[in-house]
Amino acid sequence: MDSAPLRTTSDSVKPDNGSPSLPPLEAQHQEKAEQSPTVQSIFGSSSIFRITGPKTDRPDLRGDLIIKNRVKSLHNSGLDAMSKSEFEKAVICFTKAITLQPNQIQLHVDMGEAYLQVCDFNSAIHSYWQACHLDPENKSVLYRLAFIYYLQGQCLFDRGMFVDALGSFTKAAELRPDVRPFQYRSLACLTALGRYSDSLKLVTKWLEADEQTADLFVLKARLHKQLNQVSLCHHSLKSAFQLSPACPEARGLLLQLREAGRVLRQQAGTKALEGNLHDALLRMNSAVQACPEEAPYYLFRGTLQRRLKDFSAAIKDLVVAMELSESGGGHADALGEGEEGTAALQEEGHTQLVLTYNDFAVHCFSRGLYKEAAMLLSRAIEDHRNESALFINRGDCFFKQEDLNFALADYQQAEELDPHNKAICARLAVVHNTLGLQNQKDRKYHEAAKQFSLTVKYNPAVSQYYENRCKLYYREHKLDMAKEDAINAILRDPTNQQASFIM
Questions:
Q1: Please, what is the Cα angle at 32 between 26 and 35, to 5 degrees?
Q2: 180-192 vs 162-175: helix axis angle to the nearest 10?
Q3: What is the 3-state secondary structure of 328-365?
Q4: Which of 199, 309, 368, 422 is most buried, judged by most C-beta within 10 A?
Q5: R_g over Cα of the chain
Q6: d(Cα 52, Cα 12) in Å, to the nearest integer?
Q7: pLDDT digits over 302-342, tens only?
Q8: What is the DSSP letter of 136?
Q9: Which of 20-34, 66-80, 480-494 is predicted least confidently?
Q10: Which helix (DSSP H) or strand (DSSP E) does residue 207 occupy?
Q11: What pTM does this model have?
């Protein structure tokens, strides 16, 4: 073309004296460059590269105004394009404007909005971060950036990209820690990824840092349930009921646990009837975890443990069962249910506890632990003083420890409770015979005679008892009485040579 080329703002303007000069904006940039530390360190005060000359009087040739007007025009064009939903065009306009004036915050914000409208979240985030760097104290920019992260995370979550979504939600929550929904979405990502332990830690952190609510405790209970931590699930539900007794979510989850416990209890009963006590105990362990405040479950588990000879665990469960039955137990009030059969449950609990103490004592007795067995029986007798077998067994323990007086007292108490029990009479005869022999050894013949007489009274079928009294009468020259005892001894044991010799 024959026409002359257009002058740009970067072309130098020649003054009348012919020396080149710069428009004001270029002059400002040159001055700033010369003042920079790097330039100063290289060139010092040298001015050989400075282009000097008089300033122009024409405003249309001022570079700063040209750029400012162009940026304004591009900005307005971008806003106009956005109003017409021409977002790609708006992005082009804002990009050109930012190229000319990169430090103008509103340009980055508007370009971020344009990118957001076309769902280019990464570019929108980049634009808003540029705005944040220019004005870190601008809360509205930070809040909008947090929302974009949230929106990006939600899109990623809907596409099943849970790891990337978690990163976006986490950044949103970091920018707006006061907005709980952002944190909730992070929790949703963690649960979708199966990271229930991390989810539980997050919920626990909220409960420790913020005001506790029933909903959060229900959420914590569900996570515990997902991790098969049923006892902790029940504990969280209890906390939820304390904050909101009518909480429907907690009620529904608790009913699920109770139903699961009921099914496990039925399965345990079936296994116990089949003789498979170990499997029955495993199911009862799960049932107790699901319903840790159900007294009947502890009672049945304690019974199973007693039959399996795990006496310490059985005693612990039976004690808990009676304590729960006395307190009315658990979440019955929360569910609107009353405790039925409390008296019968307590009676059964006492009975099972006494049986457990007794069986434990027999177990200790068989291993020679007579003192421990006596202590266990004493605890059983405290709850059941009308059971003769307990006194018999404790008397046997005392007899093995050679505490004959205590043994005799227990056997006599058992006799009062069951006077026709031949086993008690046989034990009384043994104790009286042993005491008689001790008295005879100590030359207390009169006391020995009394003991031997009681021995014969309680068990007249044993030849040896007549023989012992016969010898005592013979020593005291009571020959008629000695003869009579010798005859009774021979009648009961014809091979008794000692009695035959006395005859």
A1: 145
A2: 160
A3: CCCCCCCCCCCCCCHHHHHHHHHHHHHHHHHHHHHHHH
A4: 199
A5: 49
A6: 11
A7: 999 999 999 999 999 999 998 888 876 544 444 444 444 68
A8: T
A9: 20-34
A10: helix 196-209
A11: 0.64
